[in-house]
Specification:
alpha+beta, about 30% helix, 3 strands, 2 helices, TTHA1013/TTHA0281-like, Type II toxin-antitoxin system HicB family antitoxin, DUF7387
Length: about 80
């Protein structure tokens, strides 16, 4: 199976887009952008998994203080 990926440089970022899914990601280098795109496409296709509470805490999110809501935040509308 062939996948078409568009890779562009915008300001200080490399932007990678999977043309089949429309998923886009970025990184500070070409390699980082492509690695991030791989992860984003996996999540898009449902092959990913939810992070554990420990993983959330490692990146500064307290899972006990965060919950899903019925509406999107303004930034995501």
């Amino acid at each position: 199976m062939r996948t078409r990926i568009t890779l562009t440089e915008e300001d200080e970022w490399w932007v990678a887009t999977d043309e089949e899914t429309g998923v886009t990601s970025q990184g500070g280098t070409r390699v980082e952008a492509l690695e991030n795109l791989d992860e984003a496409v996996e999540l898009h296709k449902g092959d990913g998994r939810e992070p554990t509470n420990e993983e959330l805490r490692e990146i500064g999110i307290n899972p006990e203080n965060n919950k899903s809501g019925d509406t999107l935040p303004d930034a995501l509308k």
